[in-house]
Amino acid sequence: MAWSYATHYSCDNCGEVYDLNQPLNTCPQCGGLLEIHYDLDKMKLELRPEQFAGREPSMWRWHEFYPLRSASHMISLGEGGTPLIPSVYAGPKLGLDRLYFKNDALMPTGSFKDRGFSLAVSFAKELGITRGLTYSSGNAGASFAAYAKRAGMHAAVLVEYLANPVKKSIIELYGADTATLYFDSMTEITDMLEQAVTNLGLYQFVNFINPVRHEAMKGYAYEISQLMDWAAPDVMIHPVGTGGGIWGAWKGFRELQQLGWISSLPRMVAVQPSATAPIPRAFRQGLTRAERHGDTSKTIAQSIAADSPIQGGTRVLRAVYDSGGFAEEVTDEEILEAMQWLGNEGICAEPASASTVAALKRAVAEGRIQSGESVVCVITGSGLKQPGAIQQTVTESPLRLNASYPELRELLSKLWG
User: Fold this and answer.
1) Which of 182, 255, 282, 413 is the most buried (most CB within 10 A)?
2) What is the spatial distance between Cα 260 and Cα 49, in angstroms, rounded to a whole number?
3) Beta-strand pair 17-18/6-11
4) What average pLDDT does this structure show over 156-179?
5) Which residues in 335-368 are b (16+ Cβ under 10 Å) and which e?
6) At 257, which CATH number?
7) Which domain of life is it from (predicted)?
């Protein structure tokens, strides 16, 4: 068996094919997004689900499904293999018997970005890349900084001016070179970075412009399907900024179906905050390309505040349409309530992550998700990185007591009767 069954890149737009040994971002011919392909026919002959059961519980359990050619270049902090947690609070409230949370808040740097950067930095190391660039609202920058440092790579992170101060500090803690980035729209950022690729030959790690990061998100499909006895959930709900998570997961589920390991595919649900929701807006209009929409400064869900998705969000919309899913927007008030709900599940989620539960509540009320369906909400990041948001969801208890047994007895009597 091969360490990897990856074969080549191809361009979404012009179809041009490229060798994986080339350090490419977007297509050199037309600037389109590149996708990595695999020899699924050979994988079907040589691989079986049971072969993966005894391997270490990380995303690298599935290394044959990623483009890295050699284990010697792998940069890992133990990412992936996060639990699929059955709901004990939200599910009963919504009448759902099979609601689960894929809790990537437990990742090494506190977010699902660790999947993508573990793979992308490892792949870059294999190609001989020694320096790289990304922009970030916080989580991606922290993850890139951590994995680049482990790889001995110089990392430059352009941190969005709206980023949470705690997240900014975490990026610098991991040793990246940082600069605060000011902009009017996400389009300005992508235009700037695409010019850097063309004119400077700079290798960068921005989702989709980097063709490797989203490949790691296929691990959602493998991990979830394995934990569900090789069946896909009926619905998978994912927060969307650039959309690498939902696109990668959808690609992973399709691969498993092609291999014959699962018999059906989930409906994919993309969630964005109402203040900046170009994907739901395009979906409502039946469009295959999203236009700039909203104001990224007007939402608490910083990690998914994206007013103009990369190359029109075509991949995200394709995943939604092809799966028979939908795109939903949710308000900050709904997100804050969802954070409280997740707290009752024992999960401390940042606002972007809690958006999945807010969208689920809407979808159940609208009849888009039925009581008998199995649903997975992806929790992409820890609420500990955005403490101000947690403080908005709860109020400090007014109860006070001195350290004396009579006062404690009186307090507990009031609380518990």
Assistant:
1) 282
2) 10
3) antiparallel
4) 91
5) bbbbbebbbebebbbbbbbbbbbbbbbbbbeeeb
6) 3.40.50.1100
7) Bacteria
Note whether residue 335 is domain-resident.
yes
Token code pair at residue 17? 């094919």
The count of residues in the chain is: 417
298 is a domain residue? yes
Domain range holding 226?
A: 84-110+213-388
CA 163/CA 169 separation, integer angstroms: 10
Number of domains in the chain: 1
* The predicted structure's pLDDT at residue 195: 85
Beta-carbon contacts of 191 under 8 Å, excluding residues fewer than 6 positions away, are none
Query: Do the beta carbons of residue 18 and residue 2 sit within 8 Å?
Result: no
pLDDT band (50, 70, 90) for residue 321: very high
Residue 122 dihedral angles phi and psi, to the nearest 5°? -60, -45
- State yes or no: pLDDT of 95 exceeds 80: yes
Q: How far apart are CA 216 and CA 303, in angstroms?
A: 19
Domain annotation covers residue 131: no
Asked, for residue 317, whether it belongs to a domain, the answer is yes
Q: Using alpha carbons only, what angle is made at residue 29 by residues 25 and 30, rounded to the nearest 5 degrees?
A: 85
pLDDT tens digit sequence for 355-388? 999 999 999 999 999 999 999 999 999 999 999 9
Q: Is 197 helix (H, G, I), strand (E, B) or coil?
A: helix
Residues of the chain above pLDDT 70, percent? 100
